[in-house]
Structures are given as C-alpha cells and as structure tokens.
Amino acid sequence: MLHGRGSDEEDLLPLAPLFGETARVASIRAPYAFGPGYAWYGMRSDGSANLQQWRESVEALDRQLEEWIAAFQIPVFLLGFSQGGMMASALTLHRAGKDVAGVVSLSAPPLPDKSAMPTLKDLPVFWGHGLEDPVVPIERGEEALARVAASGARVTARRYPMSHTISQAELRDIERWLREIDGEN
Asked: What integer pLDDT is reported at residue 185 of this predicted model?
C-alpha cells in the first residue's frame, strides 16, 4: 500500500481487509518529509515533479518489492491513493508488470515521466477517481487512466460523485473486482 502526499504508512492500513484475512499487507512510508507526513517526491516551484526524487522512489520501491516477493513467494497487488496511486502504476510499469498480479490506483495523477510505456498485456488494474476531486482533478486522473490503458492493461475504471477521498461505493467496487480477479486464478 502506497499512501498519498502528506500522509504516512498508517493511512491506508484500514483497507487491508479488502485483500482477505490470509493476505500479508505491507504499507510503506514515502521517503520525503512533506507537511504532517511524507511524499514520494517533491514538487518544483513551477509545479512539476522532481523527477530525480521520483525515479529514486521508484527504484527504492522496486528493491522493496523484490525482497517481498523473494520472502513470501505470493502474488503481489499494489494499492495506492493519490501520489501513491501514481507510484503503484509507476512501479508496475517500471517492472513491466513482472511479479505484479494487479494494481488498484485511486485518485492518482498521471506519471510525471512521459517516456515509452511497456506492455502490460492483460494486467488487471482497478482505477477509481472522484468527479469532484479538487486535488487531482478528474481530467488529470483521466490522463493517468489513458496511459495505463494504452499499455494493454485490463482496466476497470470507475468514477464517483466524491472529492479527494475513498468512498464506501468505491471500496465495494474494489472488493468485487478483487473477487473477480481471484476467480480467474
């Protein structure tokens, strides 16, 4: 689980039951202090992402994921909210989908790096976003969705009448999506 900017690793832990009682859950703290919490990367004065910090965070997450996979030898699902949702997508793309069973990206901005996308043929991705999101406007979320969909991932996209949050309706849709993914395996 990857939290959003200004939050910490405790923020998404209440969502752990979505993955079932036998799942092992890791929630990782972003490396850069930001406000009362942390961020995966900083922002430049022009509003763009600090690409060096972003790449360093992707590389660090990749190493942590490798350790997790080696230790537990189980399917890995990535879940992230806001900046964490973008990091979940970035990590999946960085690994070209290798060892990732699925991604849940919620209210996430598009990747700051516009380089070529690897193929994520049929990788299950749940994308959710609030129609009234003032932090990551729906148009920015749609940019993120378009890039992941263009990679060949099998995307389930849902839009909700909410702001920058996670709603009960969204949680129910994620649960249903996870059951469908589990039924395929």
From this structure: 55
The structure tokens 């929630």 sit at 27
Q: By C-alpha distance, which of 121, 64, 124, 133 is closest to 96?
A: 121
Convert the pLDDT of each residue in 22-39 to its tens digit: 788 999 999 999 999 999
Are β-strands 100-106 and 154-160 bridged in parallel, bridged antiparallel, or unpaired? unpaired
Q: Does pTM surpass 0.85?
A: yes
Q: Count CB neighbours of 90 within 10 A.
A: 25
CA-to-CA distance for 82 and 132, rounded, in angstroms?
A: 14
The residue type at 49: A
74 φ/ψ angles, rounded to the nearest 5 degrees: -130, 160
Q: What is the pLDDT of residues 52-76, one digit of tens each?
A: 999 999 999 999 998 988 888 877 8
Burial 103-135, CB ≥16 within 10 A → b, else e? bbbbbbbbbeeeeeeeebeebbbbbbbbeebeb
Residue 112 near residue 51 (C-beta atoms within 8 A)? yes
Tens digits of residue pLDDT in 143-176: 999 988 888 899 999 999 999 999 999 999 999 9
